[in-house]
Structures are given as C-alpha cells and as structure tokens.
Automatic annotation (TrEMBL), chain A:
Gene: potA
Name under which the protein is recorded: Spermidine/putrescine import ATP-binding protein PotA
Keyword Zinc-finger attributed: no
Lineage summary: Bacteria, Pseudomonadati, Pseudomonadota, Alphaproteobacteria, Hyphomicrobiales
Gene3D superfamilies, sorted: 2.40.50.100, Nucleic acid-binding proteins, P-loop containing nucleotide triphosphate hydrolases
Similarity annotation: Belongs to the ABC transporter superfamily. Spermidine/putrescine importer (TC 3.A.1.11.1) family.
PROSITE patterns: ABC_TRANSPORTER_1, ABC_TRANSPORTER_2
Originating species: Mesorhizobium amorphae CCNWGS0123
InterPro entries: AAA+_ATPase, ABC_SmlMolc_Importer, ABC_transporter-like_ATP-bd, ABC_transporter-like_CS, Mo/tungstate-bd_C_term_dom, NA-bd_OB-fold, P-loop_NTPase, PotA-like
Pfam families membership: ABC_tran, TOBE_2
Coiled-coil zones: none
Keywords of this entry: ATP-binding, Cell membrane, Membrane, Nucleotide-binding, Translocase, Transport
Residues passing through the membrane, by range: none
Length: 357, 296
C-alpha cells in the first residue's frame, strides 16, 4: 500500500477566550479517507478544535491546511467541510427531505441533480420512509441519521462529528458505531469525530488524538495508544491501568514496600526519580505457572462476572489502590476464587510500562 | 330520564371562573351589546335617539368620506406596524444575541417607558417636534439657520408617536421566540453553505414569525383605534377612526352612527386577531421544535 495522503494539516493551532487557552499549539495531520477521533476529557479543547475546523471559531495563531490551502479564516459556508452537530440541529420547520436538500440548494445545483442525490443518500441512510416527516416526528436514532445524511449529501472533503452518539442509549450506540464505520467506507469521506468516550474511539477510529488542557498528548492508532501510552495521563484515560508508584532503578521500579517491578525504563528517566510502573488488567495472570519476573500476593476484595470475563479487585502491598485483574471466564473456571482468598499474581516485564510520576 | 350529577371538580372550576365571567359580562359583553343595538336606531333631530330600526348608519360607514377615513387609519396603523416590527425585531435580535446576563437589563430598558403615563409620553413628543422644540434647537446648535422644519401636526408625527408607544410590545413579542431559538440551527445553516442573509431568511425568520405576528397585531389593533396620538400629534388635521368615533359620541351627538363606526372598527380588529390566531396555531408546532431542548 502506498503512503496515505495528508488531507488536513493542523499547524501550531491556538485559540484562547480571554485568559483561557482552549487550544494550545496543536499540530497534527489527518489523512485522506481516515476515521480520526479527537478524544479527551471535557474542557480539553476538542470541541474548540472542531469548531475551528468547521469555521465557527477563528484561531488566534496557526494554520489549518486543507489540501495544502489555509482555510483558518475561511467562513463556514465557504469550506468543503461539514459538521454534524451534537444536538443534530435539524431545521424544525422543514421535512426530512427539505433538511437534506438544503445544503445542495445552497450550491445552486439543478433541481434534478438535487433530487437524485437526496434520494440516493436517503436510501443509504435508510430514511426513505421518513422523507416527508418533520424532525419532531422522528426518534433519536432517526434524527441522527438525518443529521448525517444532511452533511454527507454535500460530499464534503471532511466530515466533522461532534459527539454523534452522545444522545443515544447504550445499545443503539453500539449499533450506530458500526453503522458509522460502514457508512464511512461506503461514501469514502474522511471523518473526524469528537468524543469523550475512549471506548468509542478505540472501536471506531483508524487513528486518534488524545487531548488534555488544550494540548496534544498523543496521536496514533488505537492499538499503539493502548499498548504504548505517551504518558501517565493517557495510560490512565485509555482503558484501565494498574499503577505501582516507586523510584526508578536500572531495570524497573522499586515499589514503596521494597518489591521490584521489572520493565523497560524510558531513556528520559534517570535512576532514583519518582515514577510509576503500570500493567493492564488483562496482562496479569492468577497463579502464574512459570516463574515470572514480576510477582505479588494479594487478597481478593471483590469479583464482577461480566459474561466473557471475570474482573477481580485484589488488594496488594504494591499500591494503595487495589489491582484490577481481568481473567477469562474459562481460566477462572479452572481454579475458582472467591472474595477473601489469597492469590498469587504475575506478569511479564514486556507488559510493564514505566512513566514519570 | 337520567339525572346528571355535576362532579365536584367541575363545580369547583366553575366557581373559580365565576368572578371573571361576571366581570367580562358586565363590563364587556353588555356594553358591546348596547353599542351594537344603538347602531340600528335613528338619530333624533336634537341629538337623542329615535327608537326605529334602520340600517342607514351602516350604509353611512361605507360612504366614501368615512370609508376613506377607515382606509387612512388602516394605512397609518399599517405604516406604524411595519416600522415598529422592523425596529422592534432588530432590537429583539440584538438583545437575544447579547450575553445572557445582560439580556434582562436590556429588556428592562426597552420596557421602561411603559411605566410612565401614555399622555405624558405623547406630550414629550410635542416638546421634541415643536417648531422651537428640541430637534429644532439641536439643528440650530449644529449651525442650521433656516426655517424651523414643521414636524408636529403631520402624519409622520402621528406615526412616530404610535411606533414609539407600541415598540416595547414588539420587542417583547419578538424576543421570546428569538431567545428560545437553538443557536446551532443558524450555525448548521451556515455550515451547509448558506450566507448570513440566507440563514436569516430561511431559518431564523420562519421560526420567529409567530412573535412577529403577535407583535404586529398588537401594534396594528392598538394603532387603528387610537385617538389620543392623532389628536395630540396630528393636531386634529389627521383624523383616524378613533377620533371619528369620539366626535360622533361627544361632539356631533350622533350616537347611532358612532356605534356603527365602533362596530365596524371592532369587526376589523376581530378579523386581524382571528387571522393571527389561525397562523399562530399552524406555527405552534414549529416553535415547540425550534427550542434547542426539543431535540436534546
């Protein structure tokens, strides 16, 4: 496969409202036909970044290059970029068809072309039976599809989605995640989605950017972000992580209780510095059969059965917070444990990530 | 035969409604009925009423002279309404676009004139428009030396007075739907390629029409029947129906004709109000959905 082309280059973009810096010198590239997620806790600047891409906010500094052309100061109606609003913002006085046609009428396209393109997108989004309804007569999921159809029919270079699944209930959300992926492949348009839900971005995105306090912490594939978080915040924010605080040694971290956690120490950390060693819950084995470098003993505090797997809260001397351990239901069935039991834990040095405290 | 027993809740709500109904009957329905009855009698030779049935009074309403006054009143009221709606809508739009915490302050100032007497407010315009009034003095201060402009006792003065007095109604009526409009609707329109003007014409305006209609009807109905403003600012030279009715009852002593004129005026107002109610009913659904909260 050839190297994917960069569609959108965000270059040292900054935005402040008065004394509050919402976006602080962010640079990142979004590639052609990519499903890209902007992820972060509320107030991290992801919505401001999205609104700058749509043209509703003007950056104080930096450039937004779309196909190499700086659009940072282009008004929203002159950008080949469309936004799907979190509230959907459907025009309440117009039918579904009129809502979807609106954007094409603004392009002054011939009536028959508008009709055929609207028909096509209504079919793709399975909205044909609702074409003559008003937004108030639609369910949440249907409104969401209208909002999507209204933006997609314009065939934008870039489609921005602001928390598109936020208003849906959990079950519908799962279905819509896959639906959005399918649609994105079908229409071949670059999607940029804003979300605070890390699971959502892991499931949907080809690549994702993690933001905090207006800064970019990491930009990579979900797999890379999950396996090699850039720092302690990302490690904690994406998925679940167990942390062992301590001091950096030559080959790992010395925990407060004197236990040694072996793992690869990043070059930036010098011995003696405060650091945390971390490990994912699914990388920890109960009653390790082979001699592993990292071991500890703990007491089971609580168990949560979750169908496919079993989650255990285990109190260990390594950290003030209990360890979260996830084992498959199969493995748990071979040697059942219950609350109050003392168990052996073990994990590989290769699964240990060490971060500055 | 079956007996119907009035349920206690219905009885209670009837009792609660009774004072208001009595009030309306005594002070609204009965006087209106009396005036209506009056319109079908003849005028006595020396001013009194001769109790013989006639339709003459209504025929006279359509006399070119009086029909002309009706048309003129409608024109003046219509002009005042148009100007008040344009100024009022713009003001309401500006207030709704201001920071949230400042909006009540601006609304307070918009309604402030209401707290003074209508007559005093109208007299204030005489002070302004007088040949040697404030406006002339201001012009002099800027170096104007010619004849003072004649502004008072013109149709323009009457319209200015009407617009000034009823503007707060329009501002309040237009502010309500504008402030409830989800700002993302305008952004969505811009995002889909519409200019600011097209966004206003195709999204904002249609969704706030109920407010405009309510405000406009208010100004029109109050203006077309007004007699204080045309009397004071028009100087008697610009008769409106209100003045005509006033004259019939108090000067010409032709109560039956005055009653017929009053009835014609009421008919016009009812027509306007009913049209507005019909339109508002149709738009009610849209307005409910236009609120941002409706679609989460």
């Amino acid at each position: 496969m050839s190297e994917p082309r960069t569609l959108l280059a965000i270059d040292h973009l900054s935005k402040n409202f008065g004394r509050v810096t919402a976006v602080d010198g962010i640079s990142l590239d979004i590639r052609e036909n990519e499903f890209f997620a902007l992820l972060g806790p509320s107030g991290c600047g992801k919505t401001t970044l999205l609104r700058m891409l749509a043209g509703f906010e003007t950056p104080n500094d930096g450039r937004i290059l779309l196909d190499g052309r700086d659009i940072a100061r282009t008004p929203p109606n002159k950008r080949p970029v469309n936004l799907m609003f979190q509230s959907y913002a459907l025009f309440p006085h117009m039918s579904v068809r009129a809502n979807v046609s609106y954007g094409l009428e603004m392009e002054r396209l011939p009536a028959n072309e508008i009709r055929s393109r609207v028909d096509a997108i209504l079919a793709t989004t399975e909205l044909v039976p609702f074409a003559d309804r008003k937004p108030e007569q639609l369910s949440g999921g249907q409104k969401q599809r209208v909002a999507l159809a209204r933006a997609l029919v314009k065939r934008p270079r870039l489609l921005l989605l602001d928390e598109p699944l936020g208003a849906l209930d959990k079950k519908l959300r799962g279905a819509m995640q896959l639906e959005l992926k399918r649609l994105q492949h079908e229409v071949g348009i670059t999607f940029v989605i804003v979300t605070h839900d890390q699971e959502e971005s892991l499931v949907m995105a080809d690549r994702m950017a993690v933001l905090k306090d207006g800064r970019l912490l990491q930009c990579d594939t979900p797999h890379a972000v999950y396996e090699h978080p850039a720092d302690r915040f990302v490690a904690d924010f994406i998925g679940v992580m167990n942390f062992v605080p301590g001091k950096v040694t030559a080959d790992g971290v010395l925990a407060a209780n004197g236990a040694r956690i072996t793992g690869k120490v990043p070059a930036a950390l010098s011995p003696g510095a405060s650091a945390v060693a971390s490990v994912r819950p699914e990388r920890i084995r109960l009653f390790p059969s082979v001699e592993t470098a990292n071991r500890t003993t703990g007491t089971v505090e609580a168990l949560a059965y979750q169908g496919l797997d079993l989650q255990l809260h285990i109190r260990t001397p390594l950290s003030p917070k209990p360890f979260l351990v996830r084992v498959t239901a199969d493995a748990a069935g071979r040697r059942p444990v219950s609350a109050g039991d003392t168990v052996e834990l073990g994990w590989d040095p290769a699964d240990v990530r060490i971060f500055a405290e | 035969m079956r007996f119907t027993i009035v349920s206690p809740t219905r009885l209670r709500s009837s009792l609660l409604m009774a004072p208001a109904l009595a009030w309306l009957t005594a002070l609204m329905v009965v006087p209106c009925a009396l005036v209506l009855a009056l319109a079908f009698f003849r005028r006595g030779i020396y001013g009194g009423i001769e109790y013989t049935f006639t339709l003459e009074n209504f025929g006279l309403v359509f006399d070119p002279l009086y029909a002309g006054i009706f048309l003129n009143s409608a024109r003046i009221a219509g002009t005042a309404t148009l100007i008040a709606v344009i100024i009022g809508y713009a003001a309401a739009y500006a207030i709704s676009a201001a920071p949230r915490r400042l909006q009540p302050v601006f609304l307070f100032f918009a309604v402030l004139p209401f707290w003074s007497n209508y007559l005093i407010r109208t007299y204030a315009w005489i002070v302004l428009l007088n040949r040697e009034g404030l406006i002339t003095q201001l012009l002099r201060w800027f170096g104007y030396t010619g004849e003072p402009p004649s502004m008072l006792y013109t149709e323009g003065a009457v319209i200015a007075g009407l617009v000034y007095n009823y503007l707060p109604f329009v501002i309040l009526a237009c502010y309500a739907p504008l402030s409830r409009l989800n700002p993302e609707l305008a952004e969505a329109s811009r995002d889909l390629g519409a200019s600011a003007l097209t966004t206003f014409r195709r999204v904002i305006l249609p969704l706030t029409v109920p407010g405009i209609a309510a405000g406009a009807v208010f100004v029109f109905v109050l203006s077309i029947g007004n007699f204080v403003t045309p009397a004071l600012l028009g100087g008697g030279r610009f008769q409106m129906i209100g003045n005509l009715v006033y004259d019939q009852f108090l000067t010409a002593n032709d109560w039956p004709f005055g009653a017929a004129l009053a009835m014609a005026l009421i008919a016009i107002m009812l027509l306007v109000l009913m049209t507005q109610a019909l339109l508002a009913d149709r738009a009610a659904g849209r307005a409910a959905e236009a609120r941002g909260d409706a679609d989460g």
